[in-house]
């Protein structure tokens, strides 16, 4: 009796995506919100999410802007009004909309940075929060 040879797929290591890296940042933030209470305000935009045409129209009508950075910490520290981080991976660069918005946000007093990994974004957040006045743990930890 002959055995039929079954082709098997080799597992190929998948490159980390912006989504993966951003998820790592928010996982870190969740587990460090006691040490850094400001992190309870950290949130993301959904601009990287692929939407159907109907959903995209609704999002645009309800105020979604092209170019808004991926991560935002709306807490003033020193001379900065808030922190914005745009996540990129590999050789990705800012789009024209992102460059335009970056200039406007910085002009408005925001701290804006681009991170190419979760670790880089986490370091940016830690440095920014170090500039802030202390926040009591009881001020909104949930």
Low-confidence stretches: none
Strand ordering within the main sheet? 1-2-3-4
Counted beta strands? 4
- Whole-number average pLDDT? 86
Q: Please give the CATH architecture.
A: 3-Layer(aba) Sandwich
- Helix/strand-derived class? alpha+beta
Task: Please count the helical segments.
Answer: 4
Total domain modules: 1
The run of helices and strands is HEHEEHEH
Q: Per CATH, what is the topology?
A: Trna Endonuclease, Chain: A, domain 1
Given the C-alpha coordinates, what overall shape results? globular
Could you give the distance between the termini?
Answer: 65 Å
Round the Cα radius of gyration to an integer and report it. Answer: 19 Å
Helix coverage percent of residues?
Answer: 25-40%
Q: Main beta sheet: strand number and arrangement?
A: 4 strands, mixed
The percent range for strand residues is 5-15%
Report the CATH C-level class: Alpha Beta
């Amino acid at each position: 009796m002959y055995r039929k040879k079954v082709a098997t797929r080799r597992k190929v290591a998948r490159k980390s995506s912006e989504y993966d890296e951003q998820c790592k940042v928010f996982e870190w933030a969740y587990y460090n919100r006691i040490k850094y209470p400001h992190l309870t305000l950290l949130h993301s935009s959904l601009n990287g999410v692929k939407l159907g045409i109907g959903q995209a129209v609704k999002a645009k009508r309800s105020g979604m802007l092209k170019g808004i950075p991926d991560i935002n910490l709306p807490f003033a520290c020193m001379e900065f009004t808030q922190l914005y981080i745009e996540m990129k991976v590999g050789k990705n660069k800012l789009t024209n909309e992102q460059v335009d918005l970056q200039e406007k946000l910085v002009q408005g007093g925001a701290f804006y940075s681009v991170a190419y990994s979760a670790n880089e974004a986490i370091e940016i957040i830690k440095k920014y929060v170090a500039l802030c006045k202390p926040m009591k743990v009881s001020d909104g930890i949930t």
